[in-house]
Write a structure and sequence with these properties.
It is a single chain. The protein has 157 residues and is an alpha+beta fold. It folds into two domains: 68 residues, SH3 type barrels, CATH 2.30.30; 69 residues. Helix content is 29%, strand content 29%. It has a five-stranded antiparallel beta sheet with strand order 4-3-2-1-5. A three-stranded antiparallel beta sheet has the order 6-8-7. A hairpin with a 5-residue loop joins strand 3 and strand 4. The longest helix has 16 residues. The chain is rod-shaped, with a radius of gyration of 25 Å. It starts with 10 loop residues before the first strand and ends with a strand.
């Protein structure tokens, strides 16, 4: 990257040995001998560092990419998903509370998809929901949102 393009208050990807990291340039200084020195902040470790070789700068990282990487985009909705869909586990809980009765996992999945609560893709999305429900029941125990009635049959608390 050419030296004149490197500006203060912008984020760049730089090389550190054989690795790369992202830094925010805080200040650009011109030394007595005419070389430029960059006072930077490592965005991953929040430590300051001085970079004296402009060849280490690989590329500028655009602000929208930074926000996306940090998870601070404003596009998310109340459900936590960018497209407004629920996760498979949240959709299963919603289906079970609306039904008010125990249901098989396949029926939970089909109802959630028909009502547009979630959009799960993959080879076996119903089994994915089943595994997630069983994991929540085993990990959270009495605090779980689900009750295992019998094999493959679940209800909402």
């Amino acid at each position: 990257m050419k030296t004149p393009k490197i500006e203060a208050e912008k984020v760049y990807e730089i090389t550190v040995g054989k690795n790369t990291t992202t830094v925010k340039v805080l200040k650009v200084e011109r030394r007595v001998n005419g070389t430029l020195v960059f006072d930077c902040l490592n965005t991953k470790t929040n430590k300051r560092m001085t970079v004296s070789d402009s060849k280490r700068f690989l590329r500028e990282i655009k602000p929208e990419k930074i926000a996306k990487a940090e998870g601070t985009t404003t596009e998310r909705t109340k459900s936590g998903r960018a497209n407004g869909m629920l996760s498979g586990l949240d959709a299963a809980h919603k289906v079970l509370t609306e039904a008010g009765r125990p249901m098989k996992v396949r029926e939970i999945f089909e109802t959630a998809m028909q009502n547009g609560y979630c959009n799960l893709k993959g080879a076996t999305p119903a089994l994915t929901i089943s595994a997630a429900i069983q994991r929540e029941v085993s990990v959270k125990g009495a605090d779980s949102r689900f009750i295992k009635v019998e094999r493959g049959l679940f209800a909402a608390r």
